[in-house]
Amino acid sequence: MGSTDVKRRDLIKRAGAAGLVAVPAMSALSACATGGGDGDGKVAKGEKTESNPLGVDKNAPLDFVIFDGGFGTQYGKDAAKVYEKSYGKVKLTATQKIRSVLQPRMVGGNPPDLIDNSGAEQMDAATLIAKDQLAELSPLLDAPSIDDPDTKVRDTLLPGTVEMGQYGDEKVWRLNYAYTVYGQWYSRKLLADNDWEYPKTWDEMLALCAKAKKKGIAGWTYAGQHPYYIPFTLYPFIGKIGGPDVLKSIDNLEPNAWKHDAVKSAFEAYYELAAKGYILKGTPGLDHIQSQTQWTKGKCIFIPNGSWVENEAADTTPADFDMAVGPVTGLDGSDKMPFGTLWAQAGEPFIVPAQARNPAGGMELLRIMLSKKSAQNFSRLVKSLTCVAGATDGMEMSPGLASSSQVLKEAGDNVLNPRIFDWYQTLHKEQIGSVLAELLAGRTKPAEAMDKCQEYADRTAKDDSVKKYRHA
């Protein structure tokens, strides 16, 4: 997700939400899987040494496909240049069409060595894992870090990073590079100019939206064409109201999880935004860029988004906008978690295909990216945190990046980590997303929306073709 992001998310396409490829092509994928290609004469292998702990073949080329979204590609190019000082030439391909570009190569058994698997055409990691299409990344995580040979790579990462690459066991199948802070993004200047306070309870939110409406400013907008952006604030809102176990029950596809009182309260609150006219007119028809542009123009106060938005919206953001992210507004004093609770987690997933010809090279490039130098370069370039602990210490930070860092620090242990969005991509993006789109457009009432979400979740739970995951 990473920068996740976008120029980052095209229109949701049914095939993309459904997984890697259509069923006939998936059969071909399964047939050609070899679990890493050992013995086919194609895998490049070098000698493991202190300076080359992963055993990269120094003469082998490296094929790297990077998602050209909100984080851009320069950080990947810079890391590739470092790689080339010690190893072979890197062929870097930038695209927004990850699935379209890579599906034929995955089916044909000729995938790249490293993939930034992000964007609207992101390949479904759960499906890839089930079809033995990914290399397990423990060799990378257990290798010495670039900065300290006595410290393993895994021990340099922020909490939750390793877990985001796990799917039901201890194996790690992907490395989520960016560390994304989700929440209600806003302009400090807009609030200050109008002497408005950031709302901590829903009554305060409604009161603020009413004041703004009188001035011709909407309370909210969102990416109406990509309604899976709505959960960036809705999921932590549910977790804040009812506690983390409510989100875990949703992730676990438990019966009646979507009927919990916390879900009911959250849905009713969001429906009220629509019912009272506090959502920017025309929002259901806006894509992510259009909604962000309306927001940076001061047409509304809040937008649900992730920390990639500062870089993605840079071209339309006024110099004095003073972009910031706030924890989601709570319901009231009965909330189970404190106001500062966040959804924050490692995003922008990188994967090494099982049939890659130079898998050690793909992992080595990731090891370079996980150095503090590369991590700082990423943060400078794209105004977002990485999964590398302490990488931004002492750095001069942009407003949005500084805000993300601050609210994450203030949240402490109150950080939520829902997994429905990557465990069950079709359910999250296409099905739940479509229900939320109707809810915020005022066309579906909360009770009906809850029923529909539960119906979709139950359908997924009963679908034997979908691999299931559970929180411990």
Question: What are the key terms here?
Answer:
472 residues; alpha/beta; D-Maltodextrin-Binding Protein, domain 2; 2 domains; ten-stranded mixed beta sheet; globular; disordered N terminus
Itemize the secondary structure elements and their pairings.
Layout: H1 14-18, H2 23-32, E1 62-67, H3 74-86, E2 90-95, H4 98-108, E3 114-116, H5 125-130, H6 138-141, H7 161-164, E4 175-187, H8 188-193, H9 202-214, E5 218-220, H10 231-242, H11 244-251, H12 261-275, H13 288-296, E6 300-305, H14 309-312, E7 323-326, E8 342-351, H15 359-369, H16 372-382, E9 385-386, H17 399-411, E10 415-416, H18 420-423, H19 425-440, H20 446-462
Parallel strand pairs: 1-2, 1-3, 5-6, 8-10
Antiparallel strand pairs: 3-8, 4-6, 4-7, 4-8, 4-9
Subcellular location: Cell envelope
Protein name: N-acetylglucosamine/diacetylchitobiose ABC transporter substrate-binding protein
Pfam family, one: SBP_bac_1
The name CATH uses for the topology of the largest domain is D-Maltodextrin-Binding Protein, domain 2
Low-pLDDT residue spans: 1-41
Question: How are helices and strands ordered from N to C?
Answer: HHEHEHEHHHEHHEHHHHEHEEHHEHEHHH
Please work out how many helical segments DSSP would assign.
Answer: 20
Number of domains: 2
The CATH H-level superfamily of the largest domain is Periplasmic binding protein-like II
What distance lies between the first and last C-alpha atoms, to the nearest angstrom? 24 Å
* Content-based structural category: alpha/beta
Percent range for β-strand residues: 5-15%
Rg measurement, Å:
22 Å
Largest sheet descriptor: 10 strands, mixed
Helix content: 40-55%
CATH architecture label name of the largest domain: 3-Layer(aba) Sandwich
Count all strands and give the number: 10
What's the overall geometry? globular
* Oligomerization status of the protein chains: single chain
Average pLDDT rating: 90
* CATH class category label of the largest domain: Alpha Beta
